[in-house]
């Protein structure tokens, strides 16, 4: 993704900034996870630099989301997944907000598990 390609918008930089703050992480913590400098990550958040594809994948992994959600603007990032809804809730009607809550809870559980595993290795 080059700066000239126009594939990453201001929505991306704003979204990763919001996700980082929601997670309670510093730019330095995210940068360390990504294997880049704090300055490089800061440029991603300000929209002055676009991450290479491999780093974009790691950003999505860090925030427990997918690249579509990071890259799409507005409500287009919210994709309803009827199969997932059915697998989780059967015939019960749920809206996308409930599904989003379930996904966030699953990601929190995954983060907790990873944290416990990391602590166990120390």
TrEMBL record:
<keyword id="KW-0238">DNA-binding</keyword>
<dbReference type="Pfam" id="PF01381">
    <property type="entry name" value="HTH_3"/>
</dbReference>
<feature type="domain" description="HTH cro/C1-type">
    <location>
        <begin position="16"/>
        <end position="70"/>
    </location>
</feature>
<dbReference type="InterPro" id="IPR010982">
    <property type="entry name" value="Lambda_DNA-bd_dom_sf"/>
</dbReference>
<protein>
    <submittedName>
        <fullName>DNA-binding helix-turn-helix protein</fullName>
    </submittedName>
</protein>
<dbReference type="GO" id="GO:0003677">
    <property type="term" value="F:DNA binding"/>
</dbReference>
<dbReference type="InterPro" id="IPR001387">
    <property type="entry name" value="Cro/C1-type_HTH"/>
</dbReference>
């Amino acid at each position: 993704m080059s700066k000239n390609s126009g594939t990453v918008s201001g929505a991306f930089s704003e979204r990763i900034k919001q996700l980082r703050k929601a997670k309670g992480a510093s730019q330095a913590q995210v940068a360390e996870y990504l294997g880049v400098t704090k300055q490089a990550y800061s440029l991603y958040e300000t929209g002055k630099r676009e991450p290479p594809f491999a780093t974009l994948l790691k950003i999505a992994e860090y925030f427990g989301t997918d690249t579509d959600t990071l890259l799409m603007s507005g409500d287009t990032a919210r994709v309803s997944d009827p199969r997932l809804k059915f697998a989780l809730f059967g015939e019960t009607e749920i809206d996308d907000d409930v599904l989003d809550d379930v996904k966030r809870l699953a990601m929190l559980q995954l983060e907790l598990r990873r944290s416990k595993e990391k602590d166990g290795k120390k």
